[in-house]
Amino acid sequence: MKSKKIFILIPDGVGLRNFAFTSFVEIGKKNGWDIIFWNQTPFDLKALGFKEIKISGKPRAITDLYKRAKINTELNYFSEKFKDPVFQEYKFINKGSGLKNAFKNILVKQFTDSFSRGKGLQRLQTKLQNSERGNDLYNDCKNTLIEQNPDFVFCTNQRPIKALAPLLAAKDLEIPTATFIFSWDNLPKATMVVNADHYFVWSGYMKNELLKYYPQIQNSQIKITGTPQFEVHFLEKTKIEKEKFYQDFNLESKRQYLCYSGDDITTAPHDELYLLHTAKAVSRMNSEGYNLGIIFRRSPVDLSKRYDSVLAEFEDIIVPIEPLWVKISDGWDAILPTRKDLKLQSNIIQHTFMVVNVASSMVFDYISYGKPCAYINYNPEEIEWIKDTRSIYRYVHFKSMPSRNSALWINEVGEIESVIKTGLEGDNSEVLGNAKKWFEIINEHPVSNANERIWNAIEEII
């Protein structure tokens, strides 16, 4: 019997993490699929033993302007339709200098204004989808599809404009397509750039969001699969014993560690101050007889030096463990994850008693191990702050939280010590129970079966 052939479109590192570094390929091969990664990243998947076809070429410049205008127009529409100004906070302002950037910003504003009335948004969406047809990238993708003749094209991320041409070529050749909605916060942010025949989502909650924000998508087009990104936490083979982990990273054998998980500079521009405050709190606790340390894991895409002075001042308390991502070329999108980093992150969670951060999805990684997350919810007093950290928790994706007591909250700098003590030795049963419910709301369970559900959905479509 002839194998079924699938193209896995990888426009960025998110697709690598979820589909190249998990059990996805292994399960697909067992199901009789010939799997080819259609790779738009500089990562060499052949080195991992996978089949790949590289995609070169760039989208048209006008496509990016249409995308930016579409996002702004959709956010305006969401604000008006749902009577919620929070959607305006998702807008990204291009702060680049020079005449070229100024001209681009003017065009985006003109597109946004021109297509904001009546059926304008629909026309703008059509312009975006069709803007890549006929360019070199589209033609190359179409020729590859004609030559390879896959049975299915699966896009691993709905956001990048690079994915438009490959999916458009597949649709024009009547090859079934699907896209994966890669993050729990994506849909309210108007990040749906590609169109596909089918949409794979994390949960029933996300399915309802998709129908809410994009009513042109039919119920039958949506498959609830969960996400593979948490799979690593449920694999015994990735776990490292405490003694070895402590030795590998020169940790003090009798010391207990919390994790400070850094955020990107856009989400948390004052993150280095929060690390400083946390280190000072731990230092005071140690002077009272505790023996605590901090494992600092920065955001993998934050290569700035903003934490350096804090790490130097508190080198006796903070142990930085760098994410095992690789910088293959210039540009933020060329900093790519590795399989080793999934294992590293999971073992940091295993060997710390809690995580402290600003509003990240690490709450779900930690509840996978039955451990609490503390959210920072105050603004630093020692500077004129750039962004109100508290505003992040008003974002739409936090409305999925079943109870505010799904995390520990640090509402002012003076609460850090008491929250750490609660995370270390308090009764966290209510917080952990609510966090588990929250995880079940936003991601289909059992968590470890996500890849199987994705393959089952593909089989159903075929």
TrEMBL record:
SUPFAM superfamilies: UDP-Glycosyltransferase/glycogen phosphorylase. This is UDP-glycosyltransferase. It comes from Gillisia mitskevichiae.
